[in-house]
Structures are given as structure tokens and as C-alpha cells.
Amino acid sequence: MLTNHKYIAFETIVIKEVRRFARIWVQTLVPPAITIGLYFVIFGNLVGRRIGEMGGFQYMEFIVPGLIMMSVIQNSYSNVVSSFFSHKFQRSVEELLVSPVPNYIILSGFIAGGMARGLAVGTIVTLMSLFFADLEIQNLFITVSVVLLTSIVFALAGFINALFANSFDDISIIPTFVLTPLIYLGGVFYSVELLPPFWKLVSALNPIFYMVNTFRYGILGSSDVDIVWAFFILIVFIVVLFSSCIMLLRKGTGLRS
Amino acid sequence: MTIAISIQNLVKTYANGFEALKGISLEVEQGDFFALLGPNGAGKSTTIGVISTLVNKTSGSVEVFGKNVDTHSYETKLDFGVVPQEVNFSQFEKVRDIVMTQAGYYGLPRKLAAERCEKYLRKLGLWDKRDERSRSLSGGMKRRLMIARALVHEPRLLILDEPTAGVDIELRRSMWEFLTEINDNGTTIILTTHYLEEAEQLCRNIAIIDEGKIVENTSMRKLLKELDSQVYILETNSQVPAGFSLKQDNMVLNIVDENIIEVTVSGGQSVNSVFTEFSEADIKIDSMRNKTNRLEQLFMSKLEGNG
Q1: Which in A9, A127, A200, B254 has the greatest CB count within 10 A?
Q2: Chain-chain contact of B102 with A99 (C-beta, under 8 angstroms)
Q3: Half-sphere exposure of B132 toward its Cβ, with a 13 Å CA cutoff?
Q4: Chain A contacts of B52, Cβ < 8 Å?
């Protein structure tokens, strides 16, 4: 496929994806904003005042980066898993499969769609957080790059979930039983320094812990993890997940009989 | 003559062990209007699935305009468009967006895509519905939308899997006209259908598939010549006299009622003599039709032969 044809195909998928979540903004953009807003009010403001400091910062300041990251992770994932599974369910994915679009363009298009929603919700949450805390970004490059890489990781994970899913139950199992616990145990609400040594070690096995803390480093300038190590983990995840997606697409897993 | 599609020893065995295709071979020439007929579960849709890469074949090869679909995926996919049996577009999108999106998948620049979109939506009578969500369309409109979508990149080969199933007669005939027009303009068409009248009316060549095997592959004309006999129903404008019979030995006459007669004519026998004999008896024939669809008779005999 010619390069400009590939670009048109990529652009078509991205526009279709953005148009989809924008069309149903009441389901895709508003609920996460409300949920995170409640976190700010209840945990950050009401409970946070009694907690005092966490990791050397006011509790509200401490949780803001984690909550922004949480919204990016959840929405990047859920956009791809729900959209691609809907394509499978309605069989409109066949439009793509019979066309000459290469697998990596299909995958990149859906990743970009997932990133667009993750970043849109992340931006809304960031703007909301300004009502509760003064944010001064300490390292813009790290802040932006970690949020982009994280959204790629979870868009890819959502894609794999959608490929294997056979029912709508299958696309809610992973977010409910895997993603949410990993996010909550990933240092969004507390510093890992509070944990006993065993649970510190367990936290070190949670990739979200590195993403949240690196993002927190970008905004607050303080982190529980080694930033270089965190970026290395992110890149390894992207390479492994992207390769897996391409392999699954080539085999036609969940798509071709 | 260029071969539009060549299928060689195609085998498909599903994961549950079901052998949908048992080594079929088939060739369709460029410009042909080709019918692929067979009962439910015969392997028609699996064959189309393998050609369009939606079904992974077990073995065998498929070439589109001389290029293998596995090794020249991009070129072959540009050359064909597929209209599936089941609706397979998003029910929440607008009609125009569905066609434009498909054009985008084929790398068509936006301006050209918009022109093609308008051209085919107009031809298929959907232009007035362009801003409506696809779920609001009737069944017939949805099928026409899938045809417009399959044509937006102007493929040389169009594959239609039962395009007129569940479509009313008026719409079916307008679709026949449209398909004939694009075939006349050079597009090769492969059609699967349950309406044997449709295949007889439209197609020049035919293959009958049953239980994953090709049981017949010939021209429509040759196939129809195989008929041993045909039964015609004649309506007369006057009462047929009692005891009236035909002089020809190989024709059987059956008077159904005073104005309706069945005449069985052996293969190769001209029906002209029927008219002559009625004319000599001063009986005017108002209308004449086949008692059953001719192809239907043959189709059933081929399937029985295979069983």
C-alpha cells in the first residue's frame, strides 16, 4: 500500500474512533470526569485534610497526578476494548479486514483513538484538579512522555482484550478484576513508603506503580521509583504488546474463522 | 481471456472438524456474470470468506487476476469488493459516513471519495438517505448500502453473497438492472443466490456446490440444455375441446381446466409445433410459462445425483 494511502487509512480509522467517542460524550467523557471529581472532593478535600501530608506533599497535591493517570489508563483501555469489540460484534470489522489496510495501520489507528480519549479525559480531569490544587509541572517532558506512553500501553492491552473477547462480559472482566485493583494498588492514593517490606516488593511488580510515580515525578518532582527504570518498563511493555497484537492480527485470532 | 478468479484445490476444515470445502477448483473469466449455487451449508459463503480473507483456508490457493491473495494481499484486495450475506456495518453511523470510511480504508483522497460516494449512493437510490443513521434503513436499503460500499473503490471483481435475500420483487428487479449495468461496463460479478430465477436471468456461467464439492461447473446455456423435458402451462382464450390431443409423439398434453393446459415437451423439441397445432384447432394461446423454474429442476437433479 502506498504511503499516502496508508496515511489516509490511518486518518480514517482515527477520525472514526474520535467521532465515535465524541458522539456518545455523555457515556465516554462525562462519567469519568464526575467520578474523578468525587475523588477530589471526598478523598482529596474532606479525608485529605485529616490525613495531612503524604510523601512530603499535601494529600490533595499527592493524589492529583495519580487520579489524572488513573483516568488516562482507564479511558485509553476502555475506548479500544469497547470500540474494537463493537466492531467485532456488529461485524463491521469485516470492512477493515477485506480492505488492503495493513495490520499495523489498523492497530495504530485504534491505539491513536484510545490515546485521544485517554488524553481528552485526562485533560478534563487536569482542568478540574486546578479547582482543588495548585499544579506546577516540574518536568514537562517527563510529564507528557509518560502520559503518552502509558496511554499507548493500555490502548494496546485493550486491543488484546477485544481480540479475545466473545461477549460483553469478556470486555468488563479485565477492567474490573485486573485493571482496577492494579490502579488502586499502584500508589495513586498512598506512598509506597507506608507499606511493609513485603508489600513494597509486591508493588514493585505492578507496572502501574511505575507509571503513576513517574507522572507524579513530572508534576511534583518527587517519586517512589527510578525514572529511567520506569521508562524502560514502559517501552518494553509497548514493544511486547504491539508485537503480540500484530501476531494475533496476522493469525486472525478472534477475527477470522 | 483473463481469468478474474482462480481457485485451486481449496480445502477448509473448521476447528470442530467440519469439512466445509473438500478441494474445490473453479475459474471465473474476466467480465463474466457467474452464479455459485448450492443449498444452505454447501460451502458458498465459506468460499467467499476464503477469497475475501475473512476465513483462513486449510489448503489450496486463490488467485485474483493472476495474483495470489496470500502473497499479494494489497493488490488483490484492491481488485475485489464483497457484499456479504449479513449486514456488517455499524448501525449507529450515517449512510454517507459508512461509504466514506470504506473509501478511506482503500486510501481514496477525500475529494475523490466524496464523488464516488455520491455517485454510488445516487445510483442505488440512497442519496436522499445519506445523512440518516443506517439503523433507520429498511432491509433492502441496507443491502443496497452494502453494494455502494463495496463499489466505492471501483473493483474489477464484485462478489455478492445472496444480495437479494429478503428483498421485495420490485427492488430485486431494480438491483438486477443495476448489476447487469455494472457487468456490461466490465465488472466481473460472482453471485450466490437462493433465487434460481435470478441466476438464470443474470448469469452466463454457473457452478453448483454441494457438501463442499463442485457438482457442476458449466455455462448456463449448456446446463439448461440438459433438461430432459420441460412442462409449459398455456392459457387459452377459448375452451379446449374434449378429446383434443397433440399429434407429436414426444409431447404430452394435460387439460387442467377449460382454459389451462399443461404441455410436456421433450428436450430438443421445438415448442413451435405446439403453437401450430393449437392454431390449426382454432385455439388462441393468451400466455405461456414454465410450470417450474427450469434451473430449479436441474439444480435438484444435480443435488440428488451428488447425494
Answers
A1: A9
A2: yes
A3: 13
A4: 97-98
**Neighboring chain A residues of B110 at a CB cutoff of 8 Å:** 8
Same fold, B3-224 and B229-306: no
CA–CA min distance B49, chain A (Å): 9
Count of CB atoms situated within 10 Å of the CB of A4: 10
ipTM at complex level: 0.87
Beta bridge partners, B251, equal B265
The superfamily CATH assigns to domain B229-306 is Alpha-L RNA-binding motif (3.30.70.1560)
The residue among A7, A90, A95, A108 with the most chain B CBs within 10 A of its CB, best to mutate, is A95
What is chain A's pLDDT, residue by residue, as a tens digit (257 residues)?
678 899 999 999 999 999 999 999 999 999 988 998 898 888 877 887 788 788 788 888 888 999 999 999 999 999 999 999 999 999 999 999 999 999 999 999 999 999 999 999 999 999 998 888 888 889 999 999 999 999 999 999 999 999 999 999 999 998 889 998 898 888 888 888 888 888 888 888 899 999 999 999 999 888 778 899 999 999 999 999 999 999 999 999 999 88
CA atoms within 13 A on the CB side of B272: 2
- CATH fold of B3-224 reads Rossmann fold (3.40.50)
